[in-house]
Design brief:
This protein is an all-beta fold. It has no helices and 12 strands. Strands 7, 8, 10, 11 and 12 form a 5-stranded antiparallel beta sheet that branches. A hairpin with a 2-residue loop joins strand 2 and strand 3. The termini are far apart.
């Protein structure tokens, strides 16, 4: 790897589900510092974009921005922003863009977030949660 001259570095083309090892050290006009201890990092799918919600006749429609690397998405719902979330739906593949949550009550507000997953060699790797969105039915 070449020298990096900033505090951050983005390494592209890493494979989801694989482990990578990194060490860093400072280099300046005085000389070179010692390397840090080796750290092990597992590559997960990136955090998905915040879902868009809309109240529709049959329930609440949750729309996602599908990504080509995704095997699918889990849709989580809760009645309170900081409450316990549960999976209310799954979008399989990366072509479908929405899911309608039909198990909602008119006049109630619901909070949604999503997780992207990638299935590789029989193992499912999940992204961090998206940002929350809320919708009143």
């Amino acid at each position: 790897m070449s020298d990096i001259t900033s505090k951050k570095c983005k390494i592209k083309k890493l494979e989801i589900g694989k482990y990578y090892y990194f060490r860093v050290r400072a280099v300046n006009s005085i000389g070179k510092g010692d390397y840090t201890e080796k750290i092990k990092i597992k590559v997960l799918p990136p955090t998905p974009k915040k879902p868009v919600t809309k109240s529709v006749k049959k329930g609440i429609k949750v729309t996602i921005t599908p990504e080509k690397y995704a095997s699918g998405y889990y849709i989580y719902r809760c009645k309170k922003k900081n409450g316990t979330y549960g999976i209310v739906g799954t979008i399989k593949g990366n072509k479908t863009k929405s899911f309608t949550d039909k198990n909602v009550v008119k006049g109630k507000t619901y909070h949604y977030k999503i997780v992207c997953y990638k299935k590789k060699n029989g193992v499912i790797y999940q992204s961090p949660y998206s940002k929350l969105t809320k919708q009143k039915k």
